[in-house]
Amino acid sequence: MVENTYKVKLVEYVKRNLKKGYPVDTLKIALINQGYIRSTVDEAIQEAMKQMASEAPIIKEKPEIEHEIIVEEEEQPVPEKKSFWKRLFGRK
Fold this sequence. Notes:
- Helices cover about 60% and strands about 5% of the residues.
- By secondary structure, the chain is mainly alpha-helical.
- β1 and β2 (about 75-80) form a beta hairpin.
- It is elongated, with a radius of gyration of 24 Å.
């Protein structure tokens, strides 16, 4: 019972600091240096990653990014050149 709440607190700590932008390796080293057991830290990190992945929104479609280059002197869009592979395989 005590170990379960202990691990839950570690998982919450890891999730909170990952959301702040800290790298996983930094959190792992910091927790181990503070005296936490390496296997418990690894389990807490795995659980935190699993929980955060389940909370993440699912992207249903791939966004399409369009761009054009405009040269200031001409004020006309420059046609995009197809790469060798696109010309070879005829992709859009």
